[in-house]
């Protein structure tokens, strides 16, 4: 029971890894979500099909199985990932698949006349998305993205099972070394909750920024 | 390393045994989540702030923290205060509790969809709060929400591998023990993935049917 500051330090180091995973995972998820979400609306059948396959596969199987697959099976195919890379890959692609449906739904909910107006103005497909559709669809996506980011934060706990030293893993070490169970676990529960609150507060302020100037439109 | 069908046939009985436990855990946790979620939803709407506020806080806290850590908490911390649970019970309670906070939100939406005049009519006929909930509100609030609840059933099914961390011998744990003793990871892990994918595809069909059967009552 002596060296509590050392154990505290250990858990805070774990918190850093958890934060890292959440941030990189979210970044990957965002990219995957936009690629797959727009891919499902693309005019080419092959792209639509591929996006649907990705979304259904990652939503249909468990994040845990995906993580183990990335960490244990890929090396047999000649791709060896560090635990951190495997964690980011599995978390990002998994949450990206859920968020892709959000992107698709939000883009579809932009009124039809907006599309017609871009055609009338002779915008190219890329210009239409960049300047007209996405700026209007983004505020609709943000609240759900916030939920997705919190889901991702919670899913990071699973990486402790592939020997990545995140917060949950460090708490297990503290438990093994001190024999005290309540303090490490209660502490990381509170830290996770604080991070979740931080994400939802950040998302709310982002939402306010994004919707500025859109008042008359919707 | 090559894919070996003979090995797949060899490990199949073990995996199917794990699958059976996975399904059992899912169903038991679903019952806990469905019941407890309704209780959460009703308590959170209580007029007594001393009940509503703490329940709201508990729900937010459970939703904001990882299921895995909650499972560890139930499995490792509770024995210190004298509550020793077998792994399966700890898993069912942990998962049921976690998903109850999600189903509570579903029930809330269902309850808010019950027209105001139903509440007023219940008051006019002098029903007690208990009678109002049991005979008027719940029978109207729950059926339209069945498809949404089934969605969480599928989500729970996909979370069951977490229970392997507290030594429940479900599908994932069986696959891991097979893989560890034979040093072959490709077949067991891929088969587990396939099982999950197959079950998800089946459940999507069932979900469509449920939406068809119950979704219309909402209108």
Note the main attributes of this structure:
heterodimer; A: 218 residues; mainly alpha; MetI-like fold; 8 helices; B: 219 residues; 9 helices; 0% strand; elongated
Task: Walk me through this protein's architecture.
The complex is a heterodimer of chains A (218) and B (219). With 218 residues, chain A is mostly helical. Chain A has a domain of 147 residues: Orthogonal Bundle (MetI-like fold), CATH 1.10.3720.10. Chain A is 78% helix and 0% strand. Chain A contains 8 helices and no strands. In chain A, helix 1 packs antiparallel against helix 7, helix 2 crosses helix 4 and helix 3 crosses helix 4. Chain A is flat, with a radius of gyration of 21 Å. The model of chain A has no long low-confidence stretch (mean pLDDT 88). With 219 residues, chain B is mainly α. Chain B has a single domain, classed as MetI-like (MetI-like fold, Orthogonal Bundle). Helices cover 78% and strands 0% of the residues of chain B. Chain B has 9 helices and no strands. In chain B, helix 1 packs across helix 4, helix 1 packs across helix 9 and helix 2 packs across helix 4. The interface between A and B is medium-sized, with 37 and 33 residues.
Total strand count of chain B, please?
0
Residues in β-strands, percent of chain A: under 5%
Q: What share of residues are in beta strands of chain B?
A: under 5%
Q: What low-confidence regions of chain B span 5 or more consecutive residues with pLDDT below 50?
A: none
Q: Going by CATH, what is the homologous superfamily of chain B?
A: MetI-like
What characterizes the major β-sheet of chain B? none
Residues in helix, % of chain A:
over 70%
Give the CATH class of the domain at 19-165 in chain A. Answer: Mainly Alpha
What's the CATH C level of chain B? Mainly Alpha
Task: Characterize the main sheet of chain A.
Answer: none
Could you estimate the helical fraction of the residues of chain B in percent? over 70%
| Poorly predicted sequence stretches spanning 5 or more consecutive residues of chain A | none
Structural class of chain A: mainly alpha
Count of helical stretches of chain B: 9
Distance between the termini of chain A: 59 Å
Radius of gyration of chain B: 21 Å
CATH topology title of chain B = MetI-like fold
Largest interface: A-B, 37 and 33 residues
What is the string of helix and strand elements of chain B? HHHHHHHHH
Instruction: Indicate the multimeric state.
Output: heterodimer
- Count of individual domains of chain B: 1
